[in-house]
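Forwarding these from the shared drive since the link keeps breaking.
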Amino acid sequence: MAWARVCASCCQQLAEAVLPTPSGVGAEERTPLLRPAPASQSPRPSVSGGSGTPNAGFSCSPNGFTSSECLSGGCREVELSADSNSPWGPGVTGASWPTAVLLADLEQGARQGECALPRAAPAGLALLKSEASRSSSPGPTSCMRARAVAEAGKRHTGSARPELESWPPCCHGSPETREPRRGQPPTTPEPPSVMLLNGNCPESLKKEEGAVELPRENGLDEAEGGDETTGQEVIVIQDTGFSVKILAPGIEPFSLQVSPQEMVQEIHQVLMDREDTCHRTCFSLHLDGNMLDHFSELRSVEGLQEGSVLRVVEEPYTVREARIHVRHVRDLLKSLDPSDAFNGVDCNSLSFLSVFTDGDLGDSGKRKKGLEMDPIDCTPPEYILPGSRERPLCPLQPQNHDWKPLQCLKVLTMSGWNPPPGNRKMHGDLMYLFVITAEDRQVSITASTRGFYLNQSTAYHFNPKPASPRFLSHSLVELLNQISPTFKKNFAVLQKKRVQRHPFERIATPFQVYSWTAPQAEHAMDCVRAEDAYTSRLGYEEHIPGQTRDWNEELQTTRELPRKNLPERLLRERAIFKVHSDFTAAATRGAMAVIDGNVMAINPSEETKMQMFIWNNIFFSLGFDVRDHYKDFGGDVAAYVAPTNDLNGVRTYNAVDVEGLYTLGTVVVDYRGYRVTAQSIIPGILERDQEQSVIYGSIDFGKTVVSHPRYLELLERTSRPLKILRHRVLNDRDEEVELCSSVECKGIIGNDGRHYILDLLRTFPPDLNFLPVPGEELPEECTRAGFPRTHRHKLCCLRQELVDAFVEHRYLLFMKLAALQLMQQKASKMETPTSLENGRPPSPDSKSGDPQQPETGSEEEGNSASGLAKVKELAETVASDDSTDPRSREVICNACKAVGSISSTAFDIRFNPDIFSPGVRFPESCQDEVRDQKQLLKDAAAFLLSCQIPGLVKDCTDHAVLPMDGATLAEVMRQRGINMRYLGKVLDLVLQSPARDQLDHIYKIGIGELITRSAKHIFKTYLQGVELSGLSAAISHFLNCFLSSYPNPVAHLPADELVSKKRNKRRKNRPPGTADNTAWAVMTPQELWKNICQEAKNYFDFNLDCETVDQAVETYGLQKITLLREISLKTGIQILLKEYSFDSRHKPAFTEEDVLNIFPVVKHVNPKASDAFHFFQSGQAKVQQGFLKEGCELINEALNLFNNVYGAMHVEICACLRLLARLHYIMGDYAEALSNQQKAVLMSERVMGIEHPNTIQEYMHLALYCFASSQLSTALSLLYRARYLMLLVFGEDHPEMALLDNNIGLVLHGVMEYDLSLRFLENALAVSTKYHGPKALKVALSHHLVARVYESKAEFRSALQHEKEGYTIYKTQLGEDHEKTKESSEYLKCLTQQAVALQRTMNEIYRNGSSANIPPLKFTAPSMASVLEQLNVINGILFIPLSQKDLENLKAEVARRQQLQEASKNRDKSEEPMATEPEPAAAPDDMGSQPPATKDPSSPSLQE
């Protein structure tokens, strides 16, 4: 069995989870999982398509209808769907993902019967775009295999986290056996192309140009080519596992499967998690009497082989070991207690899947086989039914029966007699514990070097001598077992339950996820929690008192790790990710301590707003304008927004990852109305003045500017990927200074000799729509939309995604202009065109005048493909060769000039970030360049308004993206480079859209987002005036004013005795608040809503038409519960889980007791696993072409690599598991699909939130796989859960609700609950009709589903009526001869016959009474197979018959394309013109290949 190694840094956090076995590995495998990270900031690997996003895996047919040409013949093939119904949809460009992409060895498409399907997807799902500059072979690595353990015992997250220093130098196995995977010929790297492009071209242009794909820019293709062009080594480590026998005291020997690459420490972790050995922490492993070193690899241990016996030897305790032991016992006692998840500590988070599945799906799947028609209770709760107005909150967090904890002990706490006095230390006493057992016996326990024993102390009398009997035990659990029978019984049951839970329910997430609701919980005594709060942990990391972590050193050292081959890159990325997640946790804790007043300022004598803090080697500053630094930019408002801009800059420079250039660890925390920036500290910065330190950039916004050659060299390497222009500015002495960033960007060389850049708040160019400049006119598109508008600060920047999309747009323009000029030249000269012959590439040095052989193939192809390919080749030639034909040079030069390229020989657009910066002056010699740059910025501002926003609205109209709440709408906007300040403009455009009804859901979400964001802005300043003692009263008062119908809520001020009459003037260290601490109490609902409308107008330029919450709900169709969820998530409020009477006019909805907590809202960098992502994309590309097995292997590899970098829990692993589940389902392996999807649901709940739209999607997928596995009641309860969550998050009127209701209706139809089924199906029909129009194919399918239920009820008239509606739609949309029209016609005939037969029978009864001779009527209950078939159709999974002839045609088509492709030297499959070509289909020898179907323009395809 193949096994993977895990880095020692994470061994203390290992937990075992079952992973799918990649092909070639026999037994079930499991992976050691490390401490992992949140979904809050990462670009979501959504269920969406788009070649840049992680789920662009599938092509889909519209509504499950295939083109007529694919529908003849016998053999079965499979059609997959794009998951375009996800909140992030298929049109999404992957701007936020790493740009470089692995070559999916698509070039060898023809070998082994493969076929490449260049059009296997709708436009947004273009095939994997391979980079011209980084070519690497895609062989998956087998080295990072999952770790397998035969026992039932599953690893549990320990609380200890070893430091970076303790990591061993090698963690991934040596690359000694580097051999390519069998059957995978190496790909030869192609030379980097000169042409540059970022991102994916807009879909409209793809269609126009025959989907021409362009070479893309990598960003490191020049600077760091040396590292990357070595290719992606495929490393296969031959690691056959073996089993060893473990001999532990007091239990039977057992065998354990291990791997040579494993560390001894991993065996320790397994034993600490096994049910029968979990109570041991302080032991060593001995082989033949020799102790094994913790950090040595098993293969380095002499004599260790199959069948060796490892003896567990108890070791003497130290104080540290004793503390770890007590902490571990406390963790075991609390292992089923959800309070840490509700309180948002230690990276615990909630999951409720097990409540709805009754335990593990895998086991129940085997148990329930064959019981499919057993009676099951299908009635949903009343509030889930269509049309219900009730939106209860309590079902959000159902009570899990496992959470009623078995009480093992009443109290376990540190004794007040600690620490032991000197004389007792010399007897081996380490510390004292105080315990009250469940039987109410009070005992004092000594932890000594030899173990734990009872002493004779009491609460008030110290007597450390051993009691009689003393019960000396090496483990605390063994001691407690002896003195408390209840403990013994309950602890055993607790451990049994613990190991039965799914590992994903208990592994820590990499970043903290907070819950906005929680039930009322009892506050129990907890020694570890108390110790954490008040002792070493406030300033230091766990278990290492006196030793703080040097965060800066750790963050920079991990970046310096080597990255030449795959194992090195994996180790480096894992180290970076681990340190980042630890740093984020420490920074968050520190920021809260700062605001709560627990940290002393380093400048305590200054005003509170200006104070700065250092805690745990992290520097904290508050978001206020200190020393008028931002006076010209908007004062405090600018100071508040600068940290997030700076964080975006850090994120961007980290992604470019240039060797030698360092950024600071940066986390931005919003807490209690304050913004705190946490940064790692540059060595030596505190000992020097800033003026001395800064050797590059400016400390006064451009008055004094300095530069440095080394910084210029380093920043030059980032300028191409970031589109930053190297430029010159004037300093205060009128000297020219050259920069390659904005002037605010500062360069400081630390005492460690590293080159740091900081203050990256203007990394991207300014947004001129929000920056009025006297004397500058904006383009007409901007002025027409009412721009420029004065914003409240002058730091508005364009997003990186917008810059990328704009450059890409310009590149297409450049290609078109050059192609047009070439055509004109050709036409005027009447020379033979330079074109491409099938199968042979032109010589690279061919000049444009050289005649070549005439092209074979259609004229249309010749014109578009060869024209653009010619331009590309010509541009490369011009850039590299001086002897190019002058006319060709002129063509390129003219095109470059027209699009604003900074080079006249190649396309290269860059921005000067200092244009329009107040106080920055440019030399006279640069005036032309400055003029061009100003124009470029104006064009970019116009592009956002004329292309991106209309493009977003179009995608929403087509349902290519389906946001479900504010967060997913914001995500969709950001992926297109649209800042949230444009939300008002997006809503205006929605209102003006001709398809206004189809955008109703977008309008509602947008208005809700606008209201809650405006309320958040007000809440922020409101909270700053509140003292800690009045916090819950103030928050509940604000919520009452915001959401309650009660007209005049009164705020409850803190009781007088709690408010000090004499204010202490010297208390400088209090959190920065205003003098008047009761101003918040006078707010009224009318005033708040007036302010919200004012804020919406000022910030978003949108007129809200409402004066109260009830008016808003009425006017815009909003839900109060949805608004409560949105405001709570945005501000960090946690409220009590109960039913709130928002609409009561007699009492306010919220009281002080309803506000449980306020959490921080954290923004941080999300490091990426680039290699894993490349494998993921390669796998998607394979799947898109129809090679499901190869795709599945690559996705499995990606999963292993993701696990290696992120640990077990991450949003990208969730996307991987979802795709694997879908693939297994399509290939018929339902059990594997179920297992993977169960993990995907658990992970989505844990890292994104229990009611996040992504989680709702995952629940729907899992329900489908449950149904296919005959687990009908589970499928229904999962669908009901998904429907409840969707009602809470948005409401009923959402396009996704139609899909969900169709699913529920079909399952209910399958279990013969016809009336209930009709309620859901008819609601789905109404929603589909509204959002897709009455003539859409989706609506026809809905009519058919309703007709089938009426047929089952023998109501043939209604059935006929619905089926006729469907038939009419098919006939008008697809024509008489289409397969679907014929099917519908046949069904109509069948229904008519049944109706006639029924009528005859009725007439017979009327005529002859009860003696009539009645032939039995055939009422058929639907078969499970037919229901499953319909479920597959509505979820976008189709099985399409293909004839042999179709396959032969397909092969010929593929071969022809292959030649064309080679000829044009274009490695991207979407490059060919395909406007008139027949649809290709799938490879004959792949059981799971799928042909795509024609796309019906009037109705977006019905997909998952």
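-- next protein --
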Amino acid sequence: MARCVQSVQEFVQDSFVPMVAVLCSEDAEKVARGNNLGFAELLRPFCRLTSEGHIRDPNNQVQPVKNLRISINNVCTRPTPASGALSPAQRRLLSEVVSSCQPPEGGAANVITAGEYDLNFNDRSLKASVPWYGAWKETLSQVGSSKHHTATTPWFEAYRESFLQTMAASDHEFLNHYLACLLVVSSGETVPVEQFLKLSQEQHRIQHSGDYTNPKWFIPNTLKYYVLLHDMSQGDEHRADAVYEDMKQRYGSQGCYLLKVNSRTAAAGADEQIPDPWSQYLHKNNVHSQSLCDEPTPAAANSALLENNFCSGEADTPDPAEKDGVPNCLDSHPLQLEAPADPGSLDTLRAMTSEPTKGGGGGAGGPVMSHGACLTLNDHDRIRQFIQEFTFRGLLPHIEKNIRQLNDQLVSRKGLSRSLFSATKKWFGGGKVPEKSISELKNTSGLLYPPEAPELQIRKMADLCFLVQHYELAYSCYHTAKKDFLSDQAMLYAAGSLEMAAVSTFLQSGAPRPYPAHYMDTAIQTYRDVCKNMVLAERCALLSAEVLKSQGKYSDAATLLIKMTSEDSDLRSALLLEQAAHCFINMRNPMVRKFAFHMILAGHRFSKAGQKRHALRCYCQAMQVYRGKGWSLAEDHINFTIGRQSFTLRQPDNAVSAFQQILSNDSQQTATQQGAFLREYLYVYKSVAAGSEVDLPQLPLPCIHSAATRVYFGHERRLAEGEKQAATHVSLDQEYDQDQAAMWCQLEEQAAAAANRGVAPPNFQPTQCCLNSQTDNQRFPLAVVEEPVIVEVAFRNPLKVPLSLSELSLLWRFTPKDLSRLQQDAVSAEATSEPVTNDKSAKTDDVVTTEVIPEFHMSPEETKVARLKLLPRLIGQLNILGVAYNLAASPSGETTAHCTEGQQTAEALVVRGRQDLEIRGPRLNHTKEHKTSVCHGPDHRLDPIVTPAMPLMEVFFLQFPTALLCGEIQKAYVEFCNVSAVALRGLRVASTHPHFFTFGGGTSPVTPLSPTAAENCSAYKTLVQPADGSPAELAVASAEDFARPSFKAAAEIPLEGGTLRPGESVQLPLWLRGPDQEGVHEINFLFYYESAQKGGRISHRVLRHTVFICASRSLSVRATASRSSVPPAGADAGVGGYKEEEEEEEEEVEEAAAAEGGKGDMLVFVDVENVNQSEGGVREFHIVQVSSCSKHWRLHKCINPAKDKDCKLTSRERAKLCFRAARCKPQQATSEAEDKYTFADLNLGNERIISSATPCGDFFFRCRAEANELRRDGRAAGASGAFSQPPCRVQGGGTAGAADIASLVRKCNELDLNIIVLWKAYVVEDNKQLILEGQLHVTLQTISKEACSLPQKEEAQEMVLLKFKSEPPAPASQPSVEQLSHLIKTNLHYPETYSHPFVHERLCVVPVTLTLSNCSLAQVDVIIDLRHKTSSPEAADLHGSFAWLGQTQYKRRLRAQEVARLPLRACFLHAGVYNLSTPRVYAKPAAPEPGGACETSQQVASPALIIVTNEA
């Protein structure tokens, strides 16, 4: 329950105070009217005693009377209605009291924190923290002990005080009956004593004649107190003193008083400041409320009302239309507009009560009327002294005497008659009224009990004791009377006794007994249900609720207040529901949702009672709880009601804000209801905006996802023109990918580094053409003048009804700046001018051209993007602020059915507004402050800097394929167009697949623009040269000849003159090669170019292009190299000896071989398989040429036995080719010679392709560079591989000699020979035969190790056990067994056929020469073992058995590259075919110390068969 300014004890005491009547003569009233006050009004501020009084109870015990207040009112004899219900005048009065007391607007708000909720109340209360969950006990105990932990409701206190003061006196209780009467006569009367006599007779007539039912008097012998009022400014003071002396003689010194007033003179009135204590008592609102009323109220009106001074001679007959005095009928909707001034309003009451106040005081004054103008501070003291004298010397003794008399009567009478009466009823059952009659008499007291009845005398004594604060005796009397009333079934009297017994118990000091709340509950139920008296029930509920609240029983208080709500009074129900809501919020565990729910109920009842301001306040307070908790329907209802009420109360801004909340949230309402909300908002908004010349206000619809805003700088992508395919670049249609952005940034950095001598510029920043929430927006983006800036804004329609937007455009602010001057002179100040905006209707196209979208329709719950364009015309700073548009409800079948203006169409409800684009940057998390708080960085995507003009290039591709065979070569064309007014230079291209394309080398022959000039439309440079078995054609080239100094560097695109002038275009050839791996490949190109005019803010520009190439399988090439078994020059003839014409060349080759560490030829076996499965209509492949490229080796000639000139392969066919490879001629010892490669071409068809020219050489070097890069990254296995540990570890390994030996051994097996297989494929497409051509590359790195053109699948690595124990350091690198088995090359020289006469000579001895060649650059120890026999019996039967004569084992040491010959003799016993390859050769590198590595068996040569015949 809301906090009251008074304590509960003070409130209860002030609710029941001694009543004193006043009868004034006309002259006395005139004296008081000189101060714009009646006599009763004059005394009211001084009616609370500041000193303590005393009385003696019947037991002669002194009882103190503290802080006593008396109520002094004029006598009014007008009859009042029955006390069971409020009269229309009382209803009007209470309604005006509540409406005139409003919370202050704009004052400091009180905040009550309950759990997750912070509730704001506009009053002066202290802020309190009442947690809902968690550690609430300690905090609540602190808050509970404070008197300022709840919000005040002064309108409720004003209503309560007015309600208690305007209650009609009842016959069943005497608390509101008059105890005394002040008879006031002016000292200016001719005979004041006669006037006193008249007033005394008038009082007696009113009380005892029976003609008047009002006012009611406490006891027959009413105290009369005679007051002589003397006007110090006019009357004779001596005469007044004389009259007063006479009065003391007549009435006694304790029954009269001389009151002197109006001591203030006119001369001193202007200077002296006298306080005005009457205004707060005469005002209509609460005495303690500091709120300001909406309408100023004259002070005199309240005095007339509070004094019940309606007796102007006329009866109060309200208009029949004003049945309840306030708009309380259920037919009037609470949300309707306020009606004109109510005839029963406070103004009408003022008019009714203005007649008796037209005396000399000036009548009903204005709002600024002063009171007590003729009084001084001494007069104030005299009045205060008068009240004290009257109370202590007149009233309290009078009450004490009556208490004694009543007590004596009750003691004497009750002892006999009451007991006899009770016994008679008990014995004979007499005196009991029938049950039906009792029910009829329950509500009346006069018929049931006569005034002298003992029960009423007990009640009178109880009331007197209660008024003088003798609560213990009062409780005893009330308790006794209660029993008697209950036994007589006098329920109204019993309920009154129960009520006051409970109050007396509560007010007793020391709390001898607990507060009997059940007494109050029984009294309320009896008043309401039995007696049908809602007024008394309401009073009882107000008292009990305050008592329960003071004891912390908020739940019981809330239950009690809710029970008192009914349909007969909306105002009372609203106030009690509001107080019940405050009880819920102040409970030990605050029930915040119940608080909000009952505030909603209170607001609804306030609205029905016509209290629209209070209704709005209740809804606003409840909204604090429901907001943001997911109760969308409740939020919508509350916001809609707030909007309606605010608009009715002429608060358009609040109404617009409330309707915005409805439309901004994700509403769960039906489409019809949402349409109604939208039309209400548009109508209210249009009413507010009509005639106001202010900035465009914010609109709630549609919702804008500001973080999803994307900004694109530049022209939109041009579509393809005929056969031309435009570069894809960047567009708003593409989704942002972080990995893709990093890839493009890397490519741009490579291009910038290539343009800057291999090092990226220190201030390099990647180009960002499209900015979004995932890009780095901390820098100000750079835009180019005369190039558009496109902003993509994401709109979302949260409603289930369509929206229609029109004239949609961007709002911006532009600040012109001279950027060139800033760069030329950094010291000078910025040359800026005033910012230019387009939020007004001024023409700004000469600064920034703004695109306007005329219509933009959104379907229900649709998310749609709008792309808005700006074209800056000047250089400077551009800030994009938001969007402006016209909002309207899209017309539909029922859009105008419920329109506010009836027939007003949806097209008329069009409003214009704006929404700002407020983008918050990423959250910072770098420092401790960032981590402990929520800080966001800047986001400047909407704040571009417009820079001077830059070149702009467009790229088109012609004849660019989408599908290729693996290794296929095709020729396309690229067209570069400069569409700007600035020349460009430094054109480069970087790509993720640099091996996929080439523009040709700078020194390569220029290829014609049109491919028709080449023979057979080939992309290669060819020469007609039939294959005749001659040696390969040789050519020498280097990687620099093909403009590929580095694999990752961006290639420069050759332009004539190095620049491309404005408006020019150039077309260049582009060769493409299909990827080696099948599948779909994404290939990215980045074209880099710079401006010919240096010094701009933008250093370069880029253009992106992405293509997807589908690669299909073509051929699979496998190659193996092995050492040739042909003996060196000068040896016996063997297979494949050299020709004599080549002897001179052989000598040079031998010298080169000796220098390079190797000797002899190589045999290269090429296995080609057609792995194409007739994809794309491929019929067959032709291998037209095999070329080689190496620094040290070359293909010499084809030694294929089939001698096929052209190798044709259909599907799944395989061909084997054999070539002899020889060492290249030694180059001159220059630095350039180290990078020279020898190309050897062996054509198998009728034309030779020059492999050292573009494009064959380009792709070879690009693929080789890619392979080297992959090997460096560890993604491809090297040819040599890691050395494995040998079977026998070297003793004392780890020395430098062991490492040198390993290097020498490894080098003897290395081979760097690249094979290029060129092919043609015949394809049938659209009944036409096409010829495709391509090339495949195979790199032979190691002798006897197969290499393949297709990428090999990486084998999954085996899991390695985790070892926690540190292993010993690995030994020095040693050659592997496989490498050691190739140290010695062996060859047997013998006659192929040998005849021997076995008849004459049994043994046949044949001479055999064993040639040993050291293939390494180290000394080698060799062991030749002739004891080896063939272990296979089948081989022995096939080849026969023979024996070697002489030594069975030889040991030799061969120097580096030494060739040694060992003569042997083979002995045969009979004719046959024998295999002489039985000697086993073991070798090991010669170790510097004895005890080196173990010998390793060398590879055995091919079988050496000899035919031994028997000579006849």
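The first strand starts at residue 19 and ends at 24. The chain has a mean pLDDT of 77.

- D.
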